[in-house]
Amino acid sequence: MLINMKQMLEIAKENKFAVGAFNVADSNFLRVVIEAAEENDAPAIIAVHPTELDFTKDEFFQYAVSRAKNSTVPFVIHMDHGDSLASIMRAIHCGFSSVMIDGSLLPFEENIAITKEVVDVCHKIGVSVEGELGTIGNTGTSVEGGVSEVIYTRPEDAEEFIEKTGIDTLAVAIGTAHGIYPKNVKPKLKMDVLEEIKGKVSIPLVLHGGSANPDEEIAKAVQIGIQKVNISSDYKYAFYKKCREILSTTELWDPNAIYPECIDAAKAVVKQKMELFNSIGQATIYRKENVQPWRQGQN
Description:
By secondary structure, the protein is an alpha/beta fold. It contains 12 helices and 10 strands. Strand 1, helix 2 (27-39) and strand 2 form a beta-alpha-beta unit. Helix 7 crosses helix 8 (191-200) and helix 8 (191-200) runs parallel beside helix 9 (215-224).
């Protein structure tokens, strides 16, 4: 079942769990996310960065949308870090039910302006919108980028930003970074910042850069009030680690001989994340509450 982010995260918020947003860059990763979600009866978000959409091409998402719609598990197909109204419109034309407009590197008022512009367009056709305040770090190991020095989200800004833009979800900066951290770097999330933000706003909150952080910190963030956690590097790393092992010891060349073990390795990571987010088995709530499938154009 394909739903939008507002539908997905309102239930997660009410029932105190988070939903994983897993970046998908080809058909193997789409299989990983969808099959792991179905095997564990867990809701999931298929996230796509603009560079990943460039690589997969628009036509690929005709299949992705069809696959999600025909599942008994709820999915959102989400544009991750949309960088312009044009990239947002491309995602909408591909059938995405949710988008993120990332104006986090802009001055506060400019971030409000571009985010509100996207909200005004998307809400007319039932597409959910995620905004971002503060900045995510960059480990240098992810296509999603980031900055060298994190700017933490100011709780008072979050309140104003939500009021002026009308966003459905807010990505907050509490010390995470995109990619895999170098061995000498130990991330530490500022839970006090998250708690203060949570005390001021009522919409669902998002944590970007969820890979490679200590499990206990991610679990704590979910307990405080994060409803969506973005994961990309951790499960892609597991896929390609297994791929390298197979290719270094064999002369295989057929994808159907090489990739099944890689898919299983990545699915094991996705399942572990779902356990961490307390989302396993939670798809049943959406069915019990008779959540209706999303269709583009609905308000």
